[in-house]
Design goal:
Length: about 350
């Protein structure tokens, strides 16, 4: 059952309210931003979240006060850097930490162009998470995800608390887009479309495996256009926002779905999501992180699934992906080595 299908279903909310049996604190770092605000609102609507901690370098107490009036039972608290122990308190006891802190793209920028600013923001927040929430599931949204996830891993390693089963790059928006775009092409209900998207989260590293979808027949120019749209869908939003940022609302939806999937998995459900994790799949080619279907469980990553059968065209996409991914991952690792 996907978040897309269940987000606001009344019947399901009733079912979930009785099954929300454990305390689940969820922390958002970067909570006052374009993604952070709607993401926090969606988390407030999730019956599995019992405590919501919102941190940002500016504006989090206001966002928290506002969201706290929504009439669901969870507590909401906002924290800012000049509160004594603000970040530490926001993190302590968290089951899930979502990180959408950092700058978004402007027209003409690639996600890699964000590296210089966002690498140090993620590194510093990862240090705090390693210290105060070492056992939490860490969900990295800040771009470039292909590099910020390795950065977080290196920071956790340096603190001696790295658990690869608990670190996730959020690529859910690529899956959300893929099912929406394919449904537009085929005039179907996107709730019934599931497209596996593997690789990473930027441009050619985003690899949709259409041959495994409900529509393996899509070929030729239609296929090329669809694949390009899935890989570069984010650019449509960046262009339309015309300098005011990148995807925020659809990203919040995707981030809330990923958090919900982990909360459901923690309560014993078998949930499968594509997500960017430390992965054995291409380690022999020196690529430590890769997104593929992952079964989630109470310990975080339960099982990493192989990419499966691909056609020749998709193999070409994968080859291009691996080339870029390897550079993106190395860049993240080098950054932490040189700027610990
Ligand atoms: P935004 O600029 O609207 O919000 C970012 C927030 O982070 C701001 O409120 C800012 O004050 C806060 N922030 C900056 N440094 C911080 C720090 N050290 N500690 C805590 N908070 C801090 O940006 P937006 O649109 O919310 O995007 C955030 C990030 O998410 C960007 O890097 C963007 O590229 C990425 N993104 C990722 C997607 C994905 O699929 N993984 C999709 C869309 C965006």
């Amino acid at each position: 059952m996907s978040f897309a299908r269940s987000a606001f279903s009344f019947a399901q909310r009733r079912t979930f309210s009785v099954s929300a049996r454990q305390n689940s604190k969820v922390t958002v770092l970067g909570a006052a931003g374009g993604i952070g605000q709607p993401l926090s609102l969606l988390l407030k609507l999730n019956k599995r979240v019992t405590d919501l901690a919102l941190y940002d370098i500016r504006g989090a107490p206001g966002v928290a006060a506002d969201i706290s009036h929504v009439n669901s039972n969870s507590t909401v608290a906002g924290y800012k850097p000049d509160d004594a122990e603000g970040l530490a308190t926001a993190l302590k006891g968290a089951e899930i930490v979502l990180i959408p802190a950092g700058v978004p793209r402007k027209p003409g920028m690639t996600r890699d162009d964000l590296f210089n600013t966002n690498a140090s923001i993620v590194r510093d927040l990862a240090k705090a998470a390693a210290e105060h929430a070492p056992n939490a599931n860490i969900l990295i949204i800040s771009n470039p995800v292909n590099s910020t996830v390795p950065i977080t891993a290196e920071v956790f390693k340096s603190k001696g608390v790295y658990n690869p089963k608990r670190l996730f790059g959020v690529t859910t928006l690529d899956i959300v887009r893929a099912s929406r775009f394919i449904s537009q092409l085929k005039s179907t209900d996107p709730a019934n479309e599931e497209v596996t998207v593997v690789g990473g989260h930027s441009g050619v590293t985003i690899v949709p495996i259409l041959s495994q979808s409900n529509h393996p027949d899509i070929a030729g120019e239609a296929r090329d256009k669809l694949v390009n749209r899935i890989q570069f869908g984010g650019d449509e939003v960046v262009k339309a926002k015309d300098g005011a940022g990148s995807a925020t609302l659809s990203m919040a939806f995707a981030g809330a779905r990923m958090a919900d999937s982990l909360l459901r998995a923690a309560q014993g459900e078998n949930v499968v999501e594509c997500t960017f994790v430390e992965s054995p799949l291409y380690k022999d080619q020196g690529i430590d992180f890769f997104s593929s279907k992952v079964t989630l469980g109470p310990e975080g990553v339960k099982e990493i699934h192989p990419v499966g059968a691909v056609n020749e065209y998709e193999q070409g996409l994968l080859d291009a992906c691996l080339k870029d991914l390897s550079k993106n991952i190395a860049k993240g690792k080098t950054f932490v080595a040189e700027n610990p």
